Amino acid sequence: YALDPSLDVQDTATKYIGSVDEAEKNQGLTVFESGQKKLEKRRKIKGSDASNIDGFLGPWAKYVDEKDVAKPSEEEQKELDEITAKRQKRGKQEDEKPADEKTILHVKEMYDYQGRSYLHVPQDVDVNLRSTEAPEKCYLPKKQIHVWSGHTKGVSAVRLFPHSGHLLLSCSMDCKIKVSHSKAVRDICYNNSGTQFLSAAYDRYLKLWDSETGQCISRFTNRKVPYCVKFNPDEDKQSLFVAGMSDKKIVQWDIRTGEIVQEYDRHLGAVNTITFVDENRRFVSTSDDKSLRVWEWDIPVDFKYIAEPSMHSMPAVTLSPNGKWLACQSMDNQILIFGAQNRFRLNKKKIFKGHMVAGYACQVDFSPDMR
Questions:
Q1: What are phi and psi of 30, to 5 degrees?
Q2: Considering only Cβ atoms within 10 Å of each terminal Cβ, which end of the chain, N or C, has fewer?
Q3: Is 342 inside any structural domain?
Q4: What's the number of CA atoms in the CB half-sphere (13 Å) around residue 275?
Q5: d(CA 148, CA 139)
Q6: Where in the cell is it found (predicted)?
């Protein structure tokens, strides 16, 4: 109904247009006037007494009828339970228990007639494997001499036996260190004597192995994926090793106790490489954050930070034989040379281009004469 302002009469039937009965019922009130209702003031929980230290709420007190949680209906709860069950089934993690280690010996006898194991440096070859002197001149390889086949998937790292190099240690994406880990093995590292080595794998475990018997001596984990692992090269620190992790940290373990003794946590991305420099007093780390950081041993603050807008991440780093240079494989198809002493500056005169390996970590190395 609506009031007709053009009519000046007292009769309700002619004064209103539309439903006259509703107009009489509402006493001629408009929609806005009839819709107004006196609202009761919401009450708050009592807690305005400032003398009560534990029970004082002040202006932050909740309303009496206020609800903290909105509970879904039964149908909505069923749908949510179904979605949660599907996600758990799809993203269910594998058992975190480490895989059972086993070793297969591929030679007939572990010891020869003199009681020497295969770790013994052979002396019946034409090369003196015990010599510490570098050859007078090095040559580029011109033909393939031998192929080692044993892994069923890609090989992620290869290490020569310390000093003599008469044995090869390899790890692969087939979870083998030629069956040890439950997932692909990322990195390996010998100790100085070659009697033990460490392995880092995607099953979140670092394992210490006996080179001769193949037995797993210890396991280390902080529930993160290790990307690289290195023993401290000093003879008096062979019980310590560092590992670059996926959670942006470099973690230092003690083999004797199996505990973490130090953490270096300044990187902003997963740590890819660790390289010891300056007579092992320092080490250099590279990361997915496209930076290079230099650390003092056992001091968790980097004293040198190198990062440029044009820099790419460097997943492979090698120290030169004389300890003066670092060769870094950059993800922009370049090999960059940094000084390994004092300032750690980029040598812009020595930048090597030509490879087309962007996206892959390709290890670099120096010849003994550095030519």
A1: -75, 175
A2: C
A3: no
A4: 32
A5: 22
A6: Nucleus
Tell whether 23 is covered by a domain. Answer: yes
Q: Is residue 120 part of a domain?
A: no
* Angstrom distance (rounded) from CA 164 to CA 122: 9
99 pLDDT more than 60: yes
pTM score > 0.85 for this model? Answer: no
Q: pLDDT tens digit string along 219-266?
A: 999 989 999 999 999 999 999 999 999 999 999 999 999 999 999 999
Phi then psi dihedrals of residue 267, to 5 deg: -70, 155
190 sits in the region (left: phi over 0; alpha: psi -120 to 50; else beta) called beta
Q: How far apart (Å, rounded) are the C-alpha atoms in residues 5 and 336? A: 91
Q: Residue 176 pairs with which residues in a beta bridge?
A: none
Q: Where are the alpha helices (DSSP H) in the chain?
A: 12-15, 20-25, 31-35, 74-90
Residue 330 lies in a domain: no
Task: Tell me how far apart the alpha carbons of residues 319 and 363 are, in angstroms, rounded to a whole number.
Answer: 11
pLDDT in tens, 17-63: 788 788 888 777 776 676 556 667 788 888 788 788 888 888 888 88
* Collapsed DSSP state (helix, strand, coil) of residue 201: strand
Query: Among residues 243, 291, 251, 295, which one has the least CA distance to residue 267?
Result: 291
Contacts of 294 by beta carbon, 8 Å cutoff, 6+ apart: 277, 282, 283, 284, 302, 303, 304, 305, 306, 344
CA-based nearest residue to 355, from 327, 330, 371, 334:
334
**Count of domains for the chain:** 1
**What string of DSSP letters covers 293-328?**
EEEETT--SEEEEE--TT-----EEEE-TTSSEEEE
Residues spanned by the domain of 22: 2-60
